[in-house]
Design a protein that fits this description.
It contains no helices and eleven strands. It has 106 residues and is mainly beta. The chain has two domains: 74 residues, SH3 type barrels; 30 residues, no CATH class. Strands 6-3-2-1-7-8 form a six-stranded antiparallel β-sheet, with no helix packed on it. A three-stranded antiparallel β-sheet has the order 9-10-11, with no helix packed on it. Strand 7 and strand 8 form a beta hairpin. The chain starts with 10 loop residues before the first strand and ends with a strand. The mean pLDDT is 92.
Length: 106
């Protein structure tokens, strides 16, 4: 299993495809498929039958997964950045940092 540069809760921007330039928060990351669901990005129409949860049925707008290679993290200054990994001096654990500003990403 490989590590990805994004995690749930990160603010990201889409760098390629029909939704290029859209920003949002990562809701779910699928590590096996290298895909992530981003809030408000790649909306698709899902047709649903009436059920207990939705008695009316109809067409729902729902986010579809985006490949992680098309996503970049937005750092604290609001700029898209690449991600690096380094060992934290205090804890000895691996932390992610912004290659543009050098800041550690929480």
């Amino acid at each position: 299993m490989n590590k990805l540069h994004i995690k749930k809760g990160d603010n990201v921007i889409v760098t390629a495809g029909d939704h290029r330039g859209d920003k949002g928060k990562v809701l779910v990351v699928d590590v096996e498929k290298n895909r992530a669901i981003v809030e408000g990005v790649n909306l698709v129409s899902k047709h649903t039958r009436p059920n207990a949860k939705n008695p009316q049925g109809g067409i729902l707008k729902q986010e579809a997964p985006v490949h992680v290679s098309n996503l970049k993290i937005i750092d604290s200054k609001g700029k898209p950045t690449r991600i690096g990994r380094k060992l934290d001096e205090k804890t000895g654990k691996s932390v992610r940092y912004s290659k543009k500003s050098g800041e550690v990403i929480k």
